[in-house]
Amino acid sequence: MASRQRPAAPLYRNVQSRIAAGTRSRAALPPLDYSFKELTDVLSIVHEEPRSGYRRIVEIDDEEMEAAARQAAVLGGVAGDDGDDVEAGASAKALSGPQTKGRGKGKAPSRPPGITTAIRLCNNYLSSLDGLEEALAEVLDEPAELKWIDLSFNALVDIDEVLTFFPHLTTLYLHGNNIGALPDADNDDDVAAVALANDNTLLGGGGPGDNDDDDAAAAAAAAATARRRRRKRVSLDMVDKLGLLPNLKALTLHGNPIESHPHYKNYVLSVCPSLRHLDFTGVTRADRAAAQAWASMHRARYRARSRPSP
Fold this sequence. Notes:
Blueprint lengths: L8 H17 L2 E2 L2 E2 L24 E2 L2 H15 L9 H11 L2 E2 L14 E2 L1 E3 L11 H8 L8 E3 L20 E3 L10 H20 L8 H22 L16 E3 L11 H8 L5 E2 L2 E2 L2 H22 L4
Parallel strand pairs: 1-5, 2-6, 3-4, 6-7, 7-8, 8-9, 9-10
Antiparallel strand pairs: 10-11
Helix pairs in contact: 2-3, 5-6, 7-8
């Protein structure tokens, strides 16, 4: 019987080195950090320098660089058509964004191999995620590979559908926003209800025989009832969008009005069964079992009741 022969050593080592090189080239780089930039819209990151991380490098050839220099010279009123003027070159660089110049295509001189798969947009003033896809396409080499995004401590009021366009997303931070907030009219109704309850207790009398403690207790009970009504009116339906992220492992939503709903935890875990951490707390087997049991009894009925009528 003929024995198997191992591949030649040089060929074997060549294959191994190619695999190792491919792994290094796909290594994840540090997060691109746009936190504390006072951003009011996502597209602003295209013109902002990150605090740290490596944004996409725009590689241009010599002809494109010269054309940009000539355009900058015209726009800036710089004399000369050869594009050698220092001011024209600086304007061209500003027009073209982050870039490198060299013979043929430019190459990043100091950037390590790998791709950026994480971005921080926390602690800003973002009220929507309009333009997120376009913005990430400008700052990330491969936006479809996004795995980690921090949107905490902004002014978001909804879970935007654009987040579902990144199927490799494993970590999503949304804590400290305004997700699930009721319209102002609903909040005003609750405030009016509490005020009316307080007025009723005061109008009930003011003589020496009245019990101030009873009045205070009645007012507190009315306020608690209003708060319960408000919590029940918070809709959890927006969480359903996150069920389209099969790789989501860590999610934060605490510090949002949506957290006040009495079925918040069970609903989120039933929609996102792949979660391992919710609000920085590990998800246990008991948590999963409780969520599944709740979903089998209540979720369909709750969703039908919370769906707006035509």
